[in-house]
């Protein structure tokens, strides 16, 4: 499956392919990568990503939009036969195989919807045009407007990478005392702009272009 991160409406998304033969590991990997790019409640993201098990990850794509304030999870699986029951407590189509990966007790979507409502956001569920399901989680415009600009976070990340050398998102977030989600999201933007590079282990380092930019910023 893949994660598509839109950082600029005029540029193509940054696409990250995620593969693993073990469904539980795949869910965890997608969850970690997605929460690093969004400010939406982590538990909500986990519940929705876990539901991809029902579709056996067929055609699964996680799309991050609006600076991380909207996350759309789509698949080409069997879909939900009766969408009116999607948020009904206790409704579940999980079989034995799915229950080995997720709880499958019918609490996922209702819990996620309640959490999003508590944060002033919402969840929408609709059929996918190709067959399957599309779940969209979004925060309201008011929440987006209240968010602190990420420009300063980007500057601080570039400066820190200059000082410390290659590092991972967790260490960088801790050093800057910045939420991991915000730090991860801004690192993705910097990567997309060619200022930061990431190796296979997730370690970030400045590119030559990034080093040149730092010299002009500080």
Could you explain how this protein is built, in words?
- With 218 residues, this protein is an alpha+beta fold.
- It folds into two domains: 144 residues, 2-Layer Sandwich (Heat Shock Protein 90), CATH 3.30.565.10; 70 residues, Winged helix-like DNA-binding domain superfamily/Winged helix DNA-binding domain (Arc Repressor Mutant, subunit A), CATH 1.10.10.
- 40% of the residues lie in helices and 17% in strands.
- The protein has nine helices and eight strands.
- A six-stranded mixed beta sheet has the order 2-1-3-4-6-5, covered by helices on one side.
- Strand 7 and strand 8 form a beta hairpin.
- Helix 2 packs antiparallel against helix 4 and helix 6 packs across helix 9.
- The termini are far apart.
- About 4% of the residues have low confidence.
Integer-rounded radius of gyration: 18 Å
Strand segment count:
8
Strand order of the largest sheet: 2-1-3-4-6-5
The CATH homologous superfamily of the largest domain: Histidine kinase-like ATPase, C-terminal domain
> How many DSSP helices?
9
Structural class: alpha+beta
Which shape, going by the Cα principal axes?
elongated
Low-confidence stretches at least 5 residues in length (pLDDT < 50)?
A: 142-150
Largest sheet: 6 strands, mixed
Instruction: Report the top-level CATH class of the largest domain.
Output: Alpha Beta
Terminal Cα span? 40 Å
> What is the percentage of strand-forming residues?
15-25%
Please estimate the helix content: 40-55%
Mean pLDDT: 81
